[in-house]
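Hi V.,

Quick status before I head out on leave. The structure for the redesign project is tokenized and pasted below; the design run finished overnight.
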């Protein structure tokens, strides 16, 4: 297999969409949760941290499990748990139980991503950056749809926060579809001798460590804007619906940027795409925070394409640095992106309480600015050929 398998990638990307849709719904719920429980900006940031804390800490462990054992069942289980946790958080009667629901949702995210990322590399053939962009765009679209779907349930249907309970439905539906697709996905597991050759190829820990630092700093912009764009627009005098729509533009642009970034990375190189995105995104974020209006909207949209668009590129680079531990590398890469993004959201929330929200939004530009320097130090990632024989389609996993 030389190209991306469309059926296998559709199943994996759909699971990624449903998982991240649950987490993406949180920003749209935050203004209502803040009103119900009279939350400060710091407490709002703590909810974002809770959503990311569980997945970021546990995700590398799921990655190790994925590398060592047959764990394909984590795909439907993770999707279902992510949706159920966020649905519970929306109807929880206390702030503490909201935190619990968000943590449970994060656990589902942690379960899905390493196994999903590993199989995305399996079904991508030799076009790994392109294939990983298709996988990543499912998550981007899920994040973008999450706020819109939550707003539809909560505002449009007039159900209030109780409408958030309906967020469990997409997760359950996609989990059922993944259960049906498991035997087909299992047919892409490479032969044991292929896996042994990859394990013997060696791992570049220096490259991975530097890449993880870049991923974490990138998340300052990604998760900071993800958490505070709706609240920032409210502070500018706009309604909740306007802020949610603006966030959706940011996230949908990220999905398009991911597709473009993957294709460019296969043509011009991974590091060049990373560097270009950071050079562009830093001034765009500043323009959004300072300008507002139509100019700010365009700047925020383009910054979403630049910042989020490198997610798939960095993910495939982590796998190429660690060819013998693809699951763990994926778990670390995504875990750092989510976990440090949550820490950034909490820190930015504290900054907004201490100074103002505008200063916090301006500060998000510091992440990609620092990434420019680190990207220049990145070593080339090892390209591992994946057009190797896989096990027979009748194999079980």
């Amino acid at each position: 297999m030389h190209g991306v398998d469309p059926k296998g990638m559709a199943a994996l990307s759909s699971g990624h969409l449903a998982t991240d849709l649950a987490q993406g719904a949180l920003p749209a719920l935050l203004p209502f949760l803040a009103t119900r429980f009279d939350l400060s900006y710091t407490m709002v940031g703590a909810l974002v941290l809770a959503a990311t804390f569980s997945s970021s800490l546990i995700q590398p462990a799921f990655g190790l499990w994925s590398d060592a054992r047959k764990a394909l069942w984590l795909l439907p289980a993770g999707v279902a748990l992510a949706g159920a946790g966020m649905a519970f958080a929306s109807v929880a009667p206390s702030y503490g139980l909201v935190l619990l629901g968000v943590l449970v949702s994060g656990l589902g995210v942690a379960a899905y991503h390493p196994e999903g990322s590993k199989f995305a590399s399996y079904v991508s053939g030799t076009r790994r950056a392109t294939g990983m962009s298709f996988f990543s765009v499912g998550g981007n679209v899920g994040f973008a749809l999450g706020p819109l779907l939550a707003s539809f349930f909560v505002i449009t249907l007039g159900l209030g926060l109780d409408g958030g309970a309906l967020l469990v439905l997409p997760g359950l539906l996609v989990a059922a579809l993944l259960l049906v697709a498991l035997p087909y996905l299992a047919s892409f597991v490479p032969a044991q001798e292929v896996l042994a050759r990859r394990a013997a190829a060696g791992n570049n820990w220096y490259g991975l460590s530097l890449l993880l630092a870049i991923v974490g700093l990138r998340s300052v912009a990604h998760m900071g804007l993800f958490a505070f764009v709706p609240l920032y627009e409210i502070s500018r005098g706009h309604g909740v619906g306007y802020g949610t729509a603006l966030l959706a533009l940011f996230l949908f642009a990220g999905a398009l940027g991911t597709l473009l970034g993957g294709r460019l990375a296969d043509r011009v190189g991974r590091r060049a795409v990373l560097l270009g995105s950071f050079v562009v995104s830093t001034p765009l974020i500043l323009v959004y925070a300072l300008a507002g209006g139509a100019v700010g909207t365009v700047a925020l949209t383009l910054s979403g394409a630049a910042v989020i668009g490198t997610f798939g590129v960095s993910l495939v680079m982590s796998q190429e640095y660690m060819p013998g531990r693809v699951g763990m590398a994926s778990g670390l890469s995504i875990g750092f992106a989510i976990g440090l993004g949550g820490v950034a959201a909490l820190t930015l929330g504290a900054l907004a309480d201490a100074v103002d929200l505008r200063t916090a939004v301006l500060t998000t530009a510091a992440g990609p600015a620092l990434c420019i320097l680190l990207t220049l130090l990145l070593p080339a990632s090892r390209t591992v050929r994946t057009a190797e024989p896989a096990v027979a389609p009748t194999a079980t996993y």
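Above is the designed sequence. The radius of gyration is 20 Å.

G. will cover questions while I'm gone.

Best,
W.
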